[in-house]
Design a protein that fits this description.
With about 80 residues, this protein is an all-alpha fold. About 55% of the residues lie in helices and about 0% in strands.
Length: about 80
Amino acid sequence: MFANSVVLITLTLVIGLPPLVCLFMALSAGQLDDGGSSAESIFEEQELRYSRPWETRRQMQDRVQQHGNLMNNPRAEWERWL
């Protein structure tokens, strides 16, 4: 069925093992501990106050408490990314 099972197993280990080793090294070093700040790091402070129609009411209230009153999205701001 397979051309050579030993070759396939070896190739799978050579390709799959380095990413797993890197993942576990990053986990042990604490690189993936704080996902929340990483997710917000791409936003400027003003963008955290833009209203987001897909948010739930609770998420919107939490953002208002953390960053202040929400603002409407300026249309020109989003047009350059579309």
